What does this fold into?
Amino acid sequence: MKNKIITFLILIVCTVFQAQEKLVSPPYLQKGDTIAIVAPAGILKNRQATILKAKKLAENWGLHVLIGKNIYNNNNHFAGTDIERCQDFQDALDNASIKAIWAARGGYGSVRILDLLDFTKFKQHPKWIIGYSDITAFHNHVNALGVETLHAMMATSLEEKPEEIIETIASFKNALFGDKLSYTIPNSSYNRTLGLSKIEGKMLGGNLAIQASMLGSKSQMNTDNKILFIEEIGEYKYAIDRMLQSLKRAGYFNKLKAVVVGDMSLIKKNSTKWGSSIEQLILDAIPNDIPVIFDFPAGHEADNRALIFGRKVKVEEDMEDVNLVFN
It folds into this structure.
């Protein structure tokens, strides 16, 4: 009888744990739904035409668009004061008619408003939060709250050459409206797959510097049994190594299923040479028993494919390609 009770309690604990691990997926968008464009971080100086272009794109998909009333404000580095940027984001979180919140741009500043926001209504009625780069602060925070997010293009991505963002836009639309997301990328010679033909786990992550800045806060993610995505721009190799070593020492990599590496763009040259490629730097920092997949097209390049953070993804390798398929 005692053994039966213990077994029953274990089953309850396991069930609760699994429920907590399953992130909530916000409803996919449908024609007639409303999306809000807000600026939670960097200034949008002289970019009104870009925002209107993004508005037109969403409208062409049958969506209604609300633009944050403070979006063009200017407070030095930021698109308005912390309170103004927070107000636009909070209004979008609380408005039940808004089904997705699309960041106009990144830059820096999202972390400054995270703790000013009230996610109570959002948790009751989740909606998609969309962006990349500095918006990683929101991805990490909201994923830690138990809700999926969309790592995808922002409004300012439309400033790229149209022919270079065809897949970027298509994957964003597919993710937003619930079409299947699957990608095939060439198998890099740097890939470390450890002989595994298939890896499965929920994908989390984003910009490397922002992830490192979340350490020790309530926005830090639980990476156990996850597939971690990383990307970066405009850093020295030693700085990238420092971020990776900080995450490593904090136990970030201890129980990872795998790491998927996106774009490492505009790496700065230091007066003292690092001595290895950026790929080898990453391989040296990630524990040897963790698979690492390179060259996924997401990050600070024109070809920036959408990823659903918090969603289970299957990574399969063959001789020539690596396939990523979201469930």
Notes: The two ends are 40 Å apart (CA to CA). The CA atoms of residues 78 and 91 lie 19 Å apart. Confidence is low (pLDDT under 50) at residues 1-20.
